[in-house]
């Protein structure tokens, strides 16, 4: 009995070290999604939320940045533990989706002096449209059908290019998230970004989730996410970015390069 107690006392530190050491998960993360994901800084509204939820479960996040359109293909390689910014409409086999951790608010944007009226998605079919990667999957079949007959429809990984194309009058409509639009608009010279725009509410909010290859990781993330909601930490992270972007308009007038919100 004494020998067993001694053996247990020797092994206990090994078990404790393993239990206390944070597990690391490698998650695929879309590039060029500021302020949600800021690749250079390794943070952003969405990334901060995911990191905090995992940290509550003693799990460390290792983000792997790839173009949004490559996420589904990369997940199939089995080299990663999961991915951010997934929707149920993607229907990825073998991927266990979390509860929604963030909502993007996608909009259509036009220059005000173009006087375009967009009240329904079908009105996009005779317009030149530039959207984000995989928009036809994320925004559903109605959108996909509408842009199928567009005289010019393109999807770009670089959403800064989308915004620049609108203000340089190289497309009639851009489709992207409201915060992403304002982020990239804040980086343009006032001579371009100062043009008045119309925001067309065609899409509403889109709920996004983290997808995991292991259901246990999904469950752990959900527990961490619930803690963020219940503790008020989620709202703190969200408020930091929302309050910052509320100041972008005045900051842009003074110096476009000084308008930063963690990115």
Pick out its properties.
23% strand; globular; 263 residues; alpha/beta; D-Maltodextrin-Binding Protein, domain 2; single chain; 2 domains; 10-stranded mixed sheet
What does this structure look like?
With 263 residues, the protein is α/β, with parallel strands linked by helices. The chain folds into two domains: 22-103 and 206-258, Periplasmic binding protein-like II (D-Maltodextrin-Binding Protein, domain 2, 3-Layer(aba) Sandwich), CATH 3.40.190.10; 105-205, 3-Layer(aba) Sandwich (D-Maltodextrin-Binding Protein, domain 2). The protein is built from eleven helices and ten strands. The protein has helices at 2-20, 45-56, 71-75, 135-138, 141-148, 159-167, 178-185, 190-193, 215-231, 233-246, 248-254, and strands at residues 23-30, 59-66, 82-86, 96-97, 102-111, 128-132, 152-156, 173-177, 197-200, 205-212. Strands 1, 2, 3, 4, 5, 6, 7, 8, 9 and 10 form a ten-stranded mixed β-sheet that branches. Helix 2 links the parallel strand 1 and strand 2. The longest helix is centred in the N-terminal third of the chain and has 19 residues, at 2-20. The chain is globular.
